[in-house]
Design goal:
The protein contains 2 helices and no strands. The relative contact order is 0.16.
Length: 82
């Protein structure tokens, strides 16, 4: 997975986090009031995006770690060790 793809997954997570926070930051969901439909939709969509971005990022990271462990060990000269 390329750095651009990982950055895209991080951006998806950031957009999801913003959608979760936006109703409260922009104050269109008053404190103590009943949940507005727009607030509920923002939070549900944001949660789905944040979970997808988080899961995708760490799945890609786990794949990279697996690749690192699968490579044969080399000594300081670059030769394969037995």
């Amino acid at each position: 997975m390329t750095k651009i793809a990982l950055a895209g997954l991080a951006a998806i997570f950031a957009v999801g986090a913003w959608l979760i926070a936006a109703p409260f930051v922009l104050r269109y969901q008053p404190a103590g009031a009943a949940w507005a439909a727009a607030s509920r939709l923002d939070i549900e969509t944001g949660a789905a995006l944040a979970v997808a971005g988080f899961a995708g990022f760490f799945t890609a990271l786990a794949g990279r770690v697996r690749e690192l462990y699968a490579r044969p060990a080399r000594n300081e000269r670059g030769a394969l060790q037995e």
